[in-house]
Amino acid sequence: MKLFFGEIIPDVKINDEEQQHIVKVLRMKEGEEIFVTDGKGNLAKGNLVFEGKKVSLNVTEVQEYFPKLTRQLHIAIAPTKNIDRIEFFVEKATEMGISEITILNTEKTERKNLNIEKLRKQAVAASKQSLRFFFPKINDITKLSDFIKNVNPEMTFVAHCDVAFERINLSEIPELTNPTFLIGPEGDFSEKEIKMLAEKGIKAVSLGHQRLRTETAGIFVAAWNYYKSISE
């Protein structure tokens, strides 16, 4: 399946950048069959039609509203100093069906600015490659204190390494359809932040005996949620 990004409702239209990619990079031919998704669960199938530099689709079939994964995971994660590592997390978490990602600004966050639009494009690319018809939402960088104002503590968990605080295992987390996980920066959340999260009623979880890097912890949680989704 050759999957591209575009509009489905009310009319099927291939994204402008995708059109250029089809013509200049892939050098596809008129009549070739492709699929187009809008990242909102809709999918169109058809054959390529070239009109000068414009590429359109002779639609043969439209399927609307594919079902989402049963568990809609939201991970709020601090950016790593090396941007390649957080980009790797976005790519792999997208492949495993994550529904939403928020970039957190914490006390120990070294990287205060990053290209959110680039992360969004990488999420789209990973979605197409893994044949996902729902693209994850990538939020702008948000202060930790602001982020927790709008979360449901019963559905929210934080993964940190401070053994001075009580932590539960992932296996102890109840079956939830839309959990949120907070992943700290290199150097972990500060003690002040951990206390703030605990006072909010957010439970702390342990991801095992070994200390995981920020992006590894995020991928681990995404994989755990994906496994739970496909096992139900």
UniProtKB/TrEMBL annotation:
GO molecular function: rRNA (uridine-N3-)-methyltransferase activity
Ribosomal RNA small subunit methyltransferase E PUA-like domain boundaries: 14-54
Protein family per UniProt: Belongs to the RNA methyltransferase RsmE family.
Source superkingdom: Bacteria
Gene Ontology biological process: rRNA base methylation
Keyword Cytoplasm: yes
Biological role stated in the UniProt entry: Specifically methylates the N3 position of the uracil ring of uridine 1498 (m3U1498) in 16S rRNA. Acts on the fully assembled 30S ribosomal subunit.
Keyword Electron transport: no
Annotated keywords: Cytoplasm, Methyltransferase, rRNA processing, S-adenosyl-L-methionine, Transferase
Boundaries of every Ribosomal RNA small subunit methyltransferase E methyltransferase domain copy: 70-223
Protein name: Ribosomal RNA small subunit methyltransferase E
EC number of the protein: 2.1.1.193
Pfam families: Methyltrans_RNA (PF04452), PUA_4 (PF20260)
SUPFAM superfamilies: alpha/beta knot, PUA domain-like
PANTHER family (UniProt xref): 16S RRNA (URACIL(1498)-N(3))-METHYLTRANSFERASE, RIBOSOMAL RNA SMALL SUBUNIT METHYLTRANSFERASE E
